[in-house]
Design the sequence.
């Protein structure tokens, strides 16, 4: 062996030993997490909250198909989220796909019974379809949940005037 090869071998052994020492001082990731909420998932740029924000931006821009795709991904990340289901229904409603929108609103109500806006949107779909009794039921439910909903009051007055 030449002197250079011996020197390189010694250097390699030295650095291998230093790497070994460093690895031995590292903690396991599970032991190093101080709060359960501070996981890698909560800081991901692809968590359901950031996906909802991105989809909301797409709705504002008018890219409804893209928004629906992003909402669908958020629904996969966090299944049975009332907010996600409501927003999917709203976006479908903007596209005129009322039957599909109605299904998502009803699913959103199953998850969050206290959301007056799901009742309002269901009522609007029923009004468009001429199902006034169902519309009145959901408008009244929305008003029971939030008595300050002016839209619901106006629609009920219109329904009462038509009858």
Sequence:
């Amino acid at each position: 062996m030449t002197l250079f090869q011996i020197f390189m071998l010694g250097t390699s052994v030295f650095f291998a030993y230093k790497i070994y020492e460093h690895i031995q001082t590292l903690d396991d990731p599970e032991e190093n997490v101080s709060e359960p909420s501070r996981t890698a998932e909560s800081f991901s740029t692809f968590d359901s909250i950031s996906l909802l924000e991105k989809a909301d931006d797409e709705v504002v821009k008018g890219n409804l198909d893209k928004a629906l795709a992003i909402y669908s991904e958020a629904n996969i990340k966090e299944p049975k989220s009332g907010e996600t289901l409501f927003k999917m229904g709203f976006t479908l409603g903007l596209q005129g796909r009322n039957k599909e929108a109605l299904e998502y609103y009803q699913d959103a109500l199953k998850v969050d019974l206290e959301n007056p806006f799901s009742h309002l949107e269901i009522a609007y779909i029923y009004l468009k379809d001429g199902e006034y009794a169902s519309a009145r039921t959901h408008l009244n439910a929305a008003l029971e949940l939030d008595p300050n909903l002016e839209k619901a009051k106006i629609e009920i007055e219109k329904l009462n005037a038509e009858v």
About this structure: The chain has nine helices and no strands. Confidence is low (pLDDT under 50) at residues 31-44. Residues 113-163 form one domain.
